Amino acid sequence: MPSKLQLHLAKVFLKIFLRDRQSIFFSLFFPIIFMTVFAFANNGEVDPIELGIVNNSPSAVANDFSQMLIDNPLFEVTLGEEEQLRAELVEGNQTMVLILPEGFDAQSDGAELQLLVDAAQVQQLSLIMPLLEQTLISIEREFRNIEPMFTLTVEDVQARSQRYLDFLLPGLLAFTLMQLSIAGSGFNIVEYRRKGILKRLFVTPIRPRDFIASIVMARMAIVLIQLTVLILVAVLVLNVTIVGNFVSFYFIVMLGTFIFLCLGFCLGSIAKTQQAVMAVGNIVIFPQIFLSGVFYPIESMPELIQPIAKILPLSFVSTAMREIANNGASLLSIAPSLFGIALWFVIAFILATRLFVWKEVAN
Amino acid sequence: MPIIEVKNLAKKYPLPDKKSEFFYAVDGISLSIEAGEIFGILGPNGAGKTTTLEMLEGLNDIDSGTAFIDGIDVAADPYSVKEIIGVQLQANEYFDNVSLSELLTLFATLYAREVDTDELLGRVNLLDKAQAKPDNLSGGQKQRFSIACALVNTPKVLFLDEPTTGLDPQAKHNLWDLVRELNNAGMTIVLTTHNMEEAESLCERIAIMDHGKLVAEDTPQNLILKHAPEPPQAPLHGNIEDVFLALTGHGLRD
Predict the structure, then answer these.
(1) Disulfide engineering: B47 pairs with which of A90, B2, B58, B209, CB 3.0-4.6 Å?
(2) Residue A4 contacts B, CB cutoff 8 Å
């Protein structure tokens, strides 16, 4: 049970944080902006391809063919004259221009369609060619009355739509909790030492464990409040889906917070100046931003890096949070991540208690 | 009866350029400070004054020698010593965004005590600043607030490390009055200073330190009789401070 002293000091730390409007704003600002940008930039649909069609054939087949392309949501079709559409292609207003020859009709035998492309957009060609061919084949079938031999039905085994934002949210929350925790212990300790506050506390009967316990409690509360605000924004405003159990989710959040608070205490004990703690802090924070699957899956990284990436503390935390939030995993089913978290928990705790020596840290 | 007893106290540090060799910041100091005394420690910068205080306060390890405060061995039982001393350090910054009365309540909680913050702030003349943040205080106010923080546990011994450095004469005299008041109520006060006038008018006994050693220890009068050179034939009467105070008055400026 926390003592009266620990609770009081924790309350003071919490008050200090809540009165610092600027840092609250910035710690919420970045993740919210980030999510919002992705919510609007990546709403699950591919931008339609701008396709110009020059129809030189008076036949019904050519008309139907054009209509099928117009109806296809993948294309944004403009019908027009060749000269005008060519000009638009050069200006970049069209991605490609399709020219239906005069002899394009039901009787045609291998009529040649011409596709004009912008060299800069060639990459998309490999995507578009099969689509055009597919459309041609289905039109051919229709006119020749051939039944297709195969049909392909796609079934989503995840049985729910997963947007990038759904993937991103748990990672972003893990990242935010790491930042808040390391700043809360490491950066603050260096600041308190610089101001002589640690020294002043040291001449009172407060024990190091009281000081550490109150920082841990206050930061825990701060992280939980901040993450809850972010989750509310994500779910209510940006329609992010979280399918998992919130109790398990917050359990992982608290374990993660504890790990990074301990690592922060280590940093604050080693680094003596604000510049040093920033530098050492970045060594800890930076690789984890890129390697811990916060913004994209670890599996998409080079094979060589994956084994290293997987054992970083933030990897275990963000993976566990994502499994719960995205897939509704139970604590039992994420045992490997939990094991990693437990291991880091022990390592960070031992390191912090070894390195944080009151007398040395205070002076 | 002495409340602070120090015997052969020493503190050594490795030399900055030769780590294998040591120099003594405090080199065998012995002191005996009576209960109810105002005791001043004088000395040039680097003489070891602050290090001596820090060893008594438990901030610094004692390398050799012994120190007892109110019969408690500082090295063996630092937490009991912390309960009965009040400390004002040279650095007097506090947490941001916390008001004076909140800080006093916090400090009292560290001693598991309740404190009447208004009464305490009133004693150091800061009652109107109860809701202010330490950042918004002037130098003199900050020092008085530091002393208020050091009083939350009604200590038997109050340590003041250069309490008047950087204060204007009004603030300085005001602080001296406060120290005398506390002393009259029975508190033992140990202070370091560079201000000779402070040592002379405030302290009942003075220790002068240099190079980590004690070079003299006595009442101000005796020290003057023993060590001061003969006065010149026609001494000037008064000093610049008298002039300054005559021109600007004794009113406190904050």
Answers:
(1) B209
(2) yes
